[in-house]
Amino acid sequence: MELRTLIQRSPNAFHISMAATSALFGLTMSPTFVPVVFTLASLLLYAPILFNRPRPFAYTALLWISLSLGSSIGRLVPAVNALSTAGPSISVLLVMSSLTSAVAIFAVFADVYICNFTGGTQAVLFPAIWALLWTTTSHLLPLGRLTSWTPVSGAQSYSWLSPWTGPAGIDWITAAWAVVISQSIGSWYMGYSDDSSLETGRRKEFSRTAGTLVLALVLTALTIPTFILSGFPYPLSPPETVTPLVVGCALPPSSKIDGPAPGLEDYINESKTLSAARIVLWPEAAVSFRSEKDRAEAFLRIQASIYQRGTYWAVSFEEEIADESDDSGDTSMKRTGLALISNSSVDHMHYYKRFLVPIAESFSLSPGSSPPPIFPLPQSRPQSIPRSRWGKPDTRLLNVTTSICLDFAMPSLFRDLDSRPALILAPARTWDPAIGNRMWEEVKQRANEIGSVALWCDGGKGGVGQGSWYRTIGVPYPFDSTPTFYARFGNPFILAAASWLFVFGPIACRFAISRYKKSNLHAMVQSRSEDSTVHSFIARDFRSFNGRKRFDVSPSLGSFQFITSDDLPIRLDDDSPKKTRSSSSSRPATPLRSSLPLRVGIGSLLHRFKSFARTFLRKRSRDGALTDPHSTRIESTGAPRASESNTRLAPTPLRPVEYRLVDTYELNASAASSVFEPEPAPPTPASSSPPSPSWLSRNVQETNPVLNFEGKRGPTLSSPLLSPLDNSANDLRQLEPVTPPSPPPSHSKENQSADKRESSSFRKADNDSTAKPLFPSSKYNLFISAPPNFEPELPEDLWTLINTINTQGGHLDNMDFTGKQHAEVVDFGGEVDYSGYEWFQEPPPKQPPPPQSVGTPYVPLPGVIEQNEAFEFALSAAPNVLYARYKQYGQLGVLAWCSEFGELIDNLKDLGFKGNMFVATRTQALRTCEELLKLMKHSLELKMQIIVMYLSSQVARLRRFLDGEKTWDDYPEPQFPLDYTKKYPPAAGEY
User: Fold this and answer.
1) What's the whole-model pTM score?
2) Rounded to the nearest 10 degrees, how much is the dihedral formed by the CA atoms of 784, 786, 787, 791?
3) Cβ of 230: how many Cβ atoms within 10 Å?
4) Residue 856: inside a domain, yes or no?
5) % residues pLDDT > 90 (the chain)
6) CB atoms closer than 10 angstroms to residue 604
7) CA-CA distance, 303 to 296, in Å (whole number)?
8) CB 137, CB 103: distance < 8 Å
9) With contact defined as beta carbons under 8 Å apart, do 243 and 275 qualify?
10) 150 and 21 in one domain?
11) Are 36 and 43 spatial neighbours (Cβ–Cβ below 8 Å)?
């Protein structure tokens, strides 16, 4: 069973199941672009069917429930853990999914309604409706963009639009692709009309197809800037144009495992290990304070712990404040905030979370009211960069702003900023990996919209990343602080643009089309299409493709070529011979269609060019054979001409033919039998009456024709095309076909198959047929026009050359190729005399030595690059990990870490023995050895000297492998209680 038949039998079940399935895979916690597009496409296909039903409420409710359940299943696991009990979490999830599904169904139904009653274009209307609704909904719902159908992954090709259009641009792209897919599938599902006389329907179909094609080309063209604009982070060099900035995230180990939450001391100690970072960010609500006084004391303590000048700690906290709604002051509320602290001040920047998670935070926390601030953070010149390359001034200012967790789900978060920030601090604390990943995607989207970079630090169980880390990023210098287009105008401009497209888009399209029809360009195209001197299939194809009529006649005349009596060389009332029955081997004149199907493919155009060339050469090849009394010729008007007395026969006049309508249910099985009955008799003059256009009327007696010709007829367009190489000067014969005659040149694959069926029905059945006679119900007249003219005007020299080629090509028929071989043996008559020739007198020339091969440059494999990067990261983090183990487990932690470090050394040696170690990896390893020894001397209090010796031996082993010729003298000396170099007398009781 075909898919189309399955859809037609049960459209409701098919479309509802497709929408629910695509929603199940696409509407997860992080919606994906392709499944969301197919979900919308299925809704657009089903909406016209559902909207035009008498009572669509039942199926609409079923579709709404299916979409709500499909979108809820993908978000069920993260929602269950949102609250302490699963019941309220699932209820809130179902309510939010139902609301968003209702918004989607409303958008689709609004598009169908407006298109039906206003004649708007869906390609312009639906994307505007979709973007307008979701932009409005994101401002009304408490979760912002978290509940929308906006794809957060899979649409990276359109990410360059975010600084210009924000999330509404991605919504518009999604809806536009859904329109393209739905209209393409809809054209396949509905099929194409075979009635080419329906001019209005063909124009609408062409307009819809052209609009879909233009929209697809526009969407494809919008991906081109992705290949031009670089989406990679800025490099770290050169320092003249880039400011390197080291940022980090402090996550104590206990914050990632079940156990007591880390306190203030844990975060302070963890931040000290990130001394290389200029900005250290703490996760959301890292520490809690009971009052403002407690918070002030903690900030002073944090300030005293920052030793290095120019280092800033972004501390996220939760504090209790008095409830403003309670006049007694007995109750208190909490609020989540962030403060930027350095060793010089505790009041660089303060911000409080403005958007709270419904139910989970909305009852216990108080939202903030101030927009995100901007702090100009001074960045001094690093010691590793010389002053000559850094330039002046020595300090560069970088704008820094912040927001907290759910704030980033709101589309207009940074609309109040006067300048573009270089860095956004984004602390969070999520409860599920899916939630953490979705919030990270929202943070990236907000940063891309304002042209900035975000520092994400998630301290929840579902946080992205584990453990503390720091990284160096590059900020362009001088930094362009001009806000982006979207940051400056925001969603009001997007809403206005979408509203304009929604209201005036279809009107503007129709106005542009009407202006084009009145322009000179359209008049020029129209005048060319109506040129009466050109009568070719190609010209008529383009006229049909443009959907325009050739003559200004009444639509009731159909799509026939209009011919008057003045155009005919003979009178219509001329007496003609009686009709003679046409045999199966004769060639009746095939009726020509003056209107062609709408769609003209490239293949059909090439086919018509080839047919024109063959007909053109065949006609000219016969000019040289006019002296032959049996030769024939085709006139420029397309009518046959007799050549017996060099007189022209009159072309076929306009001839009416009567056909009767029949009832298909009264036909017997013989109607489907073959109608080709070859006869051995020679070809007789064909009837001027065209055959029946269908086998349904083959048993109906036809009326007498108006005109018939006696004697031989010239070849018609249905005759087989003759190659000019098969002609001879005095021998040109009319070929007798063995197979049924071929149809006239068709204009598409569908028309070819249709013409074959029509040509097979052009032969009438015998009188002794067993078919049941049919009775007429009504009569219709069919007008058949003459074939068009194919003769072009070419120079006489070119005609002479073509005739010469044709004459010479005809002699190939008299050549005998039988008994020949592919390669004949040629005898030149005698052997060559080599007497007196001296052989091998001169030595062969010495061949030059082969050039020395130049070795190809070493190009490391991607796996080797990843290995070296992993080793560099592990070696750079080794001192921090060692210090963390010492703080957790004391000296035994250092001993255990030495074993892990030994395994790292073994793997590093294997990398070096294979020849895959980079110079940067070797340099980092030597630097790590120095840092480990400094840490062991100054920060680790190791009383067990065996641990000191073990760690020193591991460092020495690594140094011997990296640089065995150098002598190192920075190892710590063991501090034993007794001097082992001296000899002591034995103690009492010892021998």
Assistant:
1) 0.52
2) -170
3) 8
4) no
5) 22
6) 23
7) 11
8) yes
9) no
10) yes
11) no
